[in-house]
């Protein structure tokens, strides 16, 4: 005797959301995307940058910026990766990153962490004094000037640089280049080889 | 049937004995081979070529026995199957360029199933790299997303260490494929460096024991469950945890379902077994997983072929997830109790923490009812046409209990999963995650070489067989006693089934106007060929093929209309599995 057809079978009451999380009917947890700054200490060897960027693209993590540079120890480098993901995505990105063999440690920086970006803005050279005045309002400086163009340098948070760029729009902007974020935790907390040993 | 006496077979007596292998290192190549020997490698599957020639030259003096395959894809699949049946990394070798790209499918396959595999590829000399030299490809670039880790060897002194580390990484922690790209000047270069023994780098995560408080909490949830269920996955095979899982389930009387790679981890003959769950799983397994209240998933990544739509997967269940790879925790299904560690050890920990069995008499009875209500069945006509399920069942009856089954990909693979009764781990050798047609013929070669004392049978499809059948020449040359059964429906049947179900029967590019006579083809290769059409000849033909000492191919002409059921459509609700075409229309 064959069992009941699909529509006549015993059914559970619950559901999961698309992230595989059981839905609590009392309090449905919504996961809005948020910005997260990940700092990864990696081995300084060929291929690491492409391993990390390939990981983020193939797993469809929404990447805002990625910077990489040397550390005090020449065998390691530090990557700062800013992503925008719902909470489960942030957690998954951290775990996937940690799994890469050349990655020594991964940490999500607190939102209070210091974040700095750099922008170089090239504008027409007809009002050099005005340009310099605006640059100084944003703690920046003109770093190159010629008859036709002035280039200023601004460092700071993303918001500050966004605001500076907007302010420069009153001039004739010729070209802009921006870096991604470099970030460090405030206070004495570090992510160095000492923590690496205690991890193993 | 003609038997050609002139087919030259490899005579083991003629192969020079090189028991000791490499004793002293003078080149990078020797260091590579010394590293492999030191790691215990006994077999290699590969194809020669310019850039890898120095390595093959060192193999000349090695204790490793090399099996020349017809195609590098075959080498990768054979090595993968070898890895599944032995638990140790299988070795695949290829030259640069096309040799390396031909390995890619097999490496990706190993990655999806976490099979231990090490691939060595030749590369043009470092001076030429980046110049689009003859047979140059960016092999480390191409294989980066499908390897656990890959290496570009950049020094003759350290190339052996690279190979040792790659071997260790393939084997330890969550298993998987690794690759070492070997530029010709590096392997030819002089060195006297004996390679380091295999050792994983410090940054590699190899968790063993799960957090004690998490284990306690999981045990509490499990013993208080009303509807407990164990889901046993491929990780149970990989961690040799099958015995522990059996005793755990029996001691606490918890019903067990498996994933496809988990076939054999729990004996399907046991009263607690509900069989395989997922797209073509049993009705009982899918009812149980949908309605359980605590699900203990061991060594599984909750793949979509198992879960169907995640919204309806075990929606009432607290999930305990035993898993060696932290990145699998809550990736697809949220784990209420993540237990990160090696399955064997974590099951012991859980056992220690269980003070009593859950009270689940009613649930077990319910599961029993489902098993009775939804048996795996098919209609068996009096005479023709031959039913594929009958062929699988009959073979299972006649074969050794611990025979190894390998498969191609398609309907035949599902029938082999459904209608063969799996009782032991490492007896199901298939392309589960990648679904690679063509896995069948070479996988039987790797399985037989890895487990020479076991009976090996491959269920293949006509389409899948045509993708890698050239490897039959290797099975003949190596005189491997394997049996291939082609469940021949003159169609790429799985696609035809989906067209009939979901594309209004518009059969675009799924039916072959003509397929070769596989029995004759087998004979041309020097294997033994059989053609099977009548149900009454099934037993006799299978026995004749089994008794033949060497590779035999049965071309079984089956009912072309036969479809695989039960079925949960892609992304569907496991509890709404269809038992037939009419059900498919209802859901
Ligand atoms: C390499 C590859 N190409 C295409 C597919 C898509 N595909 C899945 S099943 C299938 C049909 C397989 O035909 P056959 O081997 O005869 O098996 P059957 O379903 O007829 O038993 C195809 C084309 C695949 N899985 N692998
Ligand atoms: Mg077919």
TrEMBL record, chain A:
The ACT domain, residue ranges: 37-111
Single GO molecular function: acetolactate synthase activity
Basic and acidic residues composition bias: residue spans: 1-11
Pathway: Amino-acid biosynthesis; L-valine biosynthesis; L-valine from pyruvate: step 1/4; Amino-acid biosynthesis; L-isoleucine biosynthesis; L-isoleucine from 2-oxobutanoate: step 1/4
GO CC aspect terms: cytosol
Keywords assigned: Amino-acid biosynthesis, Branched-chain amino acid biosynthesis, Transferase
InterPro entries according to UniProt: Acetalactate_synth_ssu, Acetolactate_synth/TF_NikR_C, Acetolactate_synth_ssu_C, ACT-like_dom_sf, ACT_dom, AHAS_ACT, AHAS_small-like_ACT
Reaction catalysed by this enzyme: 2 pyruvate + H(+) = (2S)-2-acetolactate + CO2
Enzyme class: transferase
EC annotation from Swiss-Prot or TrEMBL: 2.2.1.6
Gene3D superfamilies, sorted: 3.30.70.260, ACT-like. Chain A, domain 2 (3.30.70.1150)
Region (Disordered): 1-30
Recorded coiled-coil stretches: none
Spans through the membrane: none
Keyword Ion transport: no
UniProt KW NADP keyword: no
GO biological process assignments: isoleucine biosynthetic process; L-valine biosynthetic process
Pfam families tied to this protein: ACT_AHAS_ss, ALS_ss_C
Source organism, top-level taxon: Archaea
Subunit structure: Dimer of large and small chains.
Family to which the UniProt record says this protein belongs: Belongs to the acetolactate synthase small subunit family.
Function in brief: Catalyzes the conversion of 2 pyruvate molecules into acetolactate in the first common step of the biosynthetic pathway of the branched-amino acids such as leucine, isoleucine, and valine.
Protein name, UniProt field: Acetolactate synthase small subunit
Species for this entry: Halapricum hydrolyticum
UniProtKB/TrEMBL annotation, chain B:
UniProt pathway: Amino-acid biosynthesis; L-isoleucine biosynthesis; L-isoleucine from 2-oxobutanoate: step 1/4; Amino-acid biosynthesis; L-valine biosynthesis; L-valine from pyruvate: step 1/4
Cofactor: thiamine diphosphate; Mg(2+)
Keyword annotations: Amino-acid biosynthesis, Branched-chain amino acid biosynthesis, FAD, Flavoprotein, Magnesium, Metal-binding, Thiamine pyrophosphate, Transferase
Gene3D superfamilies per UniProt: 3.40.50.970, TPP-binding domain
Domain Thiamine pyrophosphate enzyme TPP-binding: 408-555
GO MF annotation terms: acetolactate synthase activity; flavin adenine dinucleotide binding; magnesium ion binding; thiamine pyrophosphate binding
Pfam (any one): TPP_enzyme_C
InterPro entries, alphabetized: Acetolactate_synth_lsu, AHAS_TPP, DHS-like_NAD/FAD-binding_dom, THDP-binding, Thiamin_PyroP_enz_cen_dom, Thiamin_PyroP_enz_TPP-bd_dom, TPP-bd_CS, TPP_enz
EC numbers: 2.2.1.6
Residue segments, region Disordered: 1-24, 178-206
Catalytic activity, reaction form: 2 pyruvate + H(+) = (2S)-2-acetolactate + CO2
Domain Thiamine pyrophosphate enzyme central: 215-350
Comp. bias intervals (Basic and acidic residues): 1-21, 182-191
Keyword Flavoprotein appears in the UniProt entry: yes
UniProt family annotation: Belongs to the TPP enzyme family.
Name of the protein: Acetolactate synthase
Organism encoding this protein: Halapricum hydrolyticum
Gene name as annotated: ilvB
